[in-house]
């Protein structure tokens, strides 16, 4: 799985994927299906066993063949991350009991908890946090667990880590973008509603001067724009980015006519 901010249909200079630094090395580099498609000889390892939750294979590899669960694979990722990605609670518990570090970071600075956030793996996240995982660890791009949850629209996961484990719902990443920026950019209206309920600052400007409403407008996300406008004030519509453009003007520039029309007609 490539980084969520890399999965963009439009190649445009205003994209976080272009200017945000979160390109090829910035996120989640594999899916279990990717392992499954690999050479058969590569399947007989603790990483694949963890990804698929194959406890029989995992126990055999660790207890009889002496394989380590605390070393990264060839791509730099840990068995615990693979278990976390797929919500394999039993595998994660076994890995922790046999030396897996809940706070181990890969070459991008991400932990197993970051990988939990991709698919909203609440059960494994709860296990990791109870075992001492740090909820506010940031990767090399400044993404905390809350950023990743917002990037993937994992609203229930986001609610869980914020309300139970005090994760920060409004922290900026290295480019000044909060989880609300990401939810708006990706068009996840339920995430936006939750973050606003959690008092995320809708007027926060990133390093480009863009608010969450700017990013929703850039991507033509009408529902996201509607939620943000309904929760905001008239002044939000008039905020300009570093180039002097309002959300409505950016929507018009990107040929999102319906969004631009909506924004200019807000009473």
Automatic annotation (TrEMBL):
Pfam families linked: Ank_2
Record keywords, A-Z: Acyltransferase, ANK repeat, Golgi apparatus, Lipoprotein, Membrane, Palmitate, Repeat, Transferase, Transmembrane, Transmembrane helix
Domain of life, per lineage: Eukaryota
Comp. bias regions, Acidic residues: 1-12
PROSITE patterns: ANK_REP_REGION (PS50297), ANK_REPEAT (PS50088)
Subcellular location: Endomembrane system; Golgi apparatus membrane
Family: Belongs to the DHHC palmitoyltransferase family.
Protein name: protein S-acyltransferase
Annotated organism of origin: Vitis vinifera (Grape)
